[in-house]
Amino acid sequence: MEIKNQCVVALTWTLKDTLGEVLDVLDDPAEFLIGGKDLFKVIEDALQGHEKGARLVLQIEPEQAFGDFNDKLLFLEPRALFPADVEEGMPFEGSSLPAGCNPEAPKDLLYTVSEIYPDHIVLDGNHPLAGIALRLALKVEDVRDATEDEIGAGSAGAGFFRIEPLHAGVPGNITLH
To answer: Contact, 31 vs 158, CB < 8 A?
Structure first.
């Protein structure tokens, strides 16, 4: 079966940065709806017309994926507002940031503690892959017709490359779940 809109593809892949560092490996096939919200457009476009067994290697630029790094999504916050055991890499939902944090920090983002200083911490609202060009080597493991439920939901449910703008006013803010 040829890949086209309204079908589901089962994919495996290796995701690397442009220096060749492996960022993610998917060995067990995951299903994605073509023509829905599961995959970035650049991936869907590349898959069109291929069949089961196809192997593709894609170069994905930041603007085609997670956007450019946005320094306006960095917030310096008082260290005293956060738990004593806060660590670099720890996530905080914008909707549950401690009282006293910058009120301009969008509430619908996921922030990561990127740096810790004695009196302040740095919260980063950028996606971890923002500003990074990606290389995706993928294999089409299967292709099938989408169900009415999948078409209605706009998703086959895998969600690895689901496109969900978190903050409409912030370009390039898309999640990789």
So the answer is: yes
Alpha carbon distance 136, 129 (integer Å): 13
Question: What are the tens digits of pLDDT across the range 114-133?
Answer: 999 999 999 999 999 999 99
Residue 44, φ and ψ in degrees, nearest 5: -60, -45
**Residue indicated by tokens 């170069």:** 59
75 vs 152: CA distance, rounded Å: 38
Mind giving me the DSSP string for 116-132? E-SSEEEEE-S-TTTT-
Q: What digits encode the pLDDT tens for the residues 22-42?
A: 999 999 999 999 999 999 999
C-alpha 102/C-alpha 172 separation (Å) is: 21
Q: Which domains does the chain have, with CATH numbers?
A: 7-66+129-153 (3.10.50.40), 71-124 (2.40.10)
Q: Which residues pair with 31 in a beta bridge?
A: 10
Q: What 3-state class would DSSP assign to 57?
A: strand
Tell me the C-alpha distance between 117 and 57, whole Å.
41
Asked if 131 and 62 count as a contact pair (C-beta separation under 8 A), the reply is yes
pTM: 0.77
Residue 118's alpha-carbon distances to 10, 40, 141, in angstroms, are: 48, 40, 50
